[in-house]
Amino acid sequence: MIEVESVDVSLGDTEILRDVSLRVPAGEFVGLVGPNGAGKTTLLRTVNGAIDPDAGRVLVDGDRMSDLSSRAGSRRVATVPQDTGTRFAFSVEDVVAMGRTPHRSRFGSDDGGDAVERALERTSTASFRDRRISTLSGGERQRVFVARAIAQEAPALVLDEPTASLDVNHATRTLSLVCELVADGRAVLGAIHDLEAAARFCDRLVMLADGEVVASGAPADVLTADALATSFDMESVVTRNPVTGAPTVTPLSDTGDERRSVHVLGGGRVGAAVVARLHAAGFGVTAGPVPEGDELLGVSERLDVPTETVPPMSALDGSTLAAAGERIDEADVTVLADLTLTPDGGLLDLAAEAGQTVVVEERPLDERDRAGTDQRRRYERLRERVTTSGLDDVAATVRSVGADAGRHVSRRGI
Ligand SMILES: Nc1ncnc2c1ncn2[C@@H]1O[C@H](COP(=O)(O)OP(=O)(O)OP(=O)(O)O)[C@@H](O)[C@H]1O
């Protein structure tokens, strides 16, 4: 168990960490996220005993790190550093064997058995065991340092950007391996820049900004658009990864000059993505009507996109339809974003009045179970009328919604 209690750290004249507290119980993987310069590396170096805090304390398995000798400290905490560059011409096997140093007696004996062998196997580095570490690629070298940390057999592990130089396959394998080490009962604290990977593999996240903990808890509670805006100074949309269920952060670029105006009819996941894309691309966006609680509303509130709402499950009344109709009239283009076919067809009537229209669908129409035959026919007729001329910029922007999510985007519509 790693316990960080009200730690302050200054380096030179600069205060780097302020009143930082966190706990990593055995069997838990806690991810440290935050912008460059937030103090993640400094915190990890305080946890592994390389830096003594000016105030507060770090305990590992109940003992204060600053009270332990460096040998005893290394038996408690193993580290995978951010910079794995080395000037020395050690072999891979030598580097992994260094993990055993804190376990060796004064006479050089080590009762760790085949710990080095097992670490080489687990990290798939055995095949280049005799190579000089300096001849490996950055990613291969990083795996060797993970192997060294495994060979160290310490109950706590700190990782500073363990996947920074790894390709997507090795990054996933390395983090899966870290999860196995956690399942074995280790306490792991890792700084991870890749927010999606952090959300997927970590049990909890701690967000650090400007030397302070600004959020901590389950990944979905920490990776909110608000917290990301405050800490990383960026607008983003947070959705769920359809495969892993973990939060996915999509940073939005600066909007620049406003382009043409677009009204988005529809909602849900596709509608939310369409609004975010169009807004990011600089279109003047309006949306609605959508039921309160719709996924689109979360995005439009975040981005200040004017959006009509109706109570959930209620029929669309005349004034709501009239207000939405006005928005459509004012817009240059209307996007039907996975339009739900409401029984009363109110949205279809609105869409039918729209001038230039782009259709984005999550599923082909014939898979829609909620649509009655009449609505389907009207929707099909609507699609027949969809214009494509002059829509290139809007269509290109929303087409990527379909491509990104691997979904169907109506060819006829765009
Ligand atoms: N020895 C030092 N003396 C003074 N300031 C330092 C020293 N080492 C680091 N800093 C500063 O402390 C701050 C935190 O650095 P740290 O490396 O801990 O951040 P980080 O969150 O790990 O950043 P990154 O994501 O870029 O790796 C930075 O502003 C850095 O410039």
Overview of the structural elements:
There is one protein chain. By secondary structure, the chain is of the alpha/beta class. The protein folds into two domains: 2-249, 3-Layer(aba) Sandwich (Rossmann fold), CATH 3.40.50; 255-405, Rossmann fold (3-Layer(aba) Sandwich), CATH 3.40.50.720. Helix content is 36%, strand content 24%. The chain has 15 helices and 17 strands. The chain has helices at 40-47, 70-76, 92-97, 115-122, 138-151, 168-183, 195-201, 219-222, 225-232, 268-280, 295-302, 318-330, 346-353, 373-385, 392-405, and strands at residues 2-11, 14-24, 28-33, 55-60, 63-64, 77-80, 156-160, 187-191, 204-209, 212-217, 236-240, 247-251, 261-266, 284-291, 307-310, 333-337, 356-360. It has a six-stranded mixed β-sheet, with helices on both faces. It has a five-stranded parallel β-sheet with strand order 15-14-13-16-17, sandwiched between helices. The protein has a four-stranded antiparallel β-sheet with strand order 2-1-4-5, covered by helices on one side. The structure holds adenosine-5'-triphosphate (ATP). Residues 11-12, 14, 16, 34, 36-42 line the site of adenosine-5'-triphosphate. Adenosine-5'-triphosphate (ATP) is lined by residues 11-12, 14, 16, 34, 36-42.
CA gyration radius, whole angstroms: 27 Å
Distance between the termini: 56 Å
Strand content: 15-25%
Number of helices: 15
Structural class per helix/strand content? alpha/beta
Mean pLDDT: 82
Q: Note the overall shape.
A: elongated
Cofactors and ligands:
adenosine-5'-triphosphate
Low-confidence stretches: 402-414
Q: What is the CATH topology of the largest domain?
A: Rossmann fold
Domain unit count = 2
Instruction: Work out the number of β strands.
Output: 17
The second-level CATH architecture of the largest domain is: 3-Layer(aba) Sandwich
Q: Largest sheet at a glance?
A: 6 strands, mixed
Helix content: 25-40%
Strand order of the largest sheet: 6-7-8-3-9-10
According to CATH, what is the class of the largest domain?
Alpha Beta
